[in-house]
Amino acid sequence: MPVAIITGASKGLGRALAEALAERGWDLVLDARTAQPLQETAVAILSKYGAQVRALPGDVTDGAHRAQLVAAARELGGVDLLVNNASALGAEPLVRLESLALDGLRRALEVNVVAALGLVQEALPLLRESTEGSVIDVSSDAAAEAYETWGGYGASKAALDHLSAVLGEEEPGLRVWAVDPGDMGTDLYAAAVPDDDDPRPDPASVVPAFLRLLDGRPASGRYGAPALLEQR
After folding, report:
1. CATH number of the domain located at residue range(s) 3-224 in this protein
2. How far, in Å, CA of 118 to CA of 61, rounded?
3. What is d(CA 158, CA 156) in angstroms, rounded to the nearest whole number?
4. How far apart are alpha carbons 100 and 66 in whole angstroms?
5. Are the C-beta atoms of residues 203 and 181 closer than 8 Å to each other?
6. 8 A C-beta contact, residue 209 and residue 179
7. Which among 97, 86, 95, 85 is positioned nearest to 193, based on CA atoms?
8. Predicted confidence (pLDDT) per residue in 161-199, tens digit
9. Phi and psi angles of residue 102, each rounded to the nearest 5 degrees, phi first
10. Binning pLDDT at 50, 70 and 90, where does residue 223 land?
11. If you compute the radius of gyration of the chain from its CA atoms, what whole number of angstroms results?
């Protein structure tokens, strides 16, 4: 069975993608900072799909935790897909750059960029061994567009996009996709803009875009989920 590591997998897009892969027969290594919802997710996936699931709570900025994630995947057979989905806003709710605490910006960069690269580095030997080794770095439209109050988060995602692009050039045997999932109703968005009452799409609605990448294996690059969903 193919094996995926998914960070930030206890809820939202991470959980929805984990469920979709399990339904397809994937085994999973799942990460999140909070143990209880992560364990609940793992139990739900195991009972519904029968996939092998390793749920490891921890912080992706911790190098020892990243090593544990990859070791768990190795025990399941390797790493065929790494999904860097865990994210930090840097401020909750988001604020203008004049008020953004520098420690908040550092946290966003540490989670969204440094930890993502650290996990790639840890998993790279196993990804190279896979016949379909792939990396998905979950990006944002804030990485490419200037939105008031989204400067710190957007800067971290822009940096992640560039790391993804360079990794794709350096590792031609892999597929490396930075994916902008578009608007979603997630806890992250609610924390970013708590006063926004406009309903957002369920994260599960964009999962078919990610599955399309895995099925079609287009060239490494940056992709938007809405455009992928429009393809026939």
Report:
1. 3.40.50.720
2. 8
3. 5
4. 28
5. yes
6. yes
7. 95
8. 999 999 999 999 999 999 999 988 888 888 888 888 788
9. -65, -30
10. very high
11. 17
Active site residues: 139, 153, 157
Q: Which residue reads 């910006």 in tokens?
A: 105
Judged by DSSP in three states, 171 sits in coil
Q: Tell me: the pLDDT tens digits for 45-82? A: 999 999 999 999 999 999 999 999 999 999 999 999 99
Tokens for 192? 């970013």
Rounded mean pLDDT of the chain?
96
CB count in 10 Å sphere of residue 113: 21
27: enclosing H helix or E strand: strand 27-32
Q: What sign does the CA torsion over 152, 70, 210, 22 have?
A: negative
Contact (Cβ atoms closer than 8 angstroms) between residue 108 and residue 90: yes
Tens digit of each residue's pLDDT (9 = 90 or more) over 14-56: 999 999 999 999 999 999 999 999 999 999 999 999 999 999 9
- Verify cis geometry, omega within 30 degrees of 0, for the bond prior to 199: no
Instruction: Find out whether 131 and 79 touch, Cβ atoms under 8 Å.
Output: no
Q: What are the boundaries of each domain within the chain?
A: 3-224
From residue 138, give the alpha-carbon distance in Å to each of 110, 150, 156: 15, 16, 11
Question: Which of 66-75, 121-130, 188-197, 204-213 is predicted with the least confidence, judged by mean pLDDT?
Answer: 188-197
- Longest CA pairwise span in the chain (Å): 50
> Tokens representing 199?
């309903």
Structure tokens at 55: 């749920």
Burial of 48 (C-beta count, 10 Å sphere; 0-12/13-18/19+): exposed
Has residue 232 got a pLDDT over 70?
no
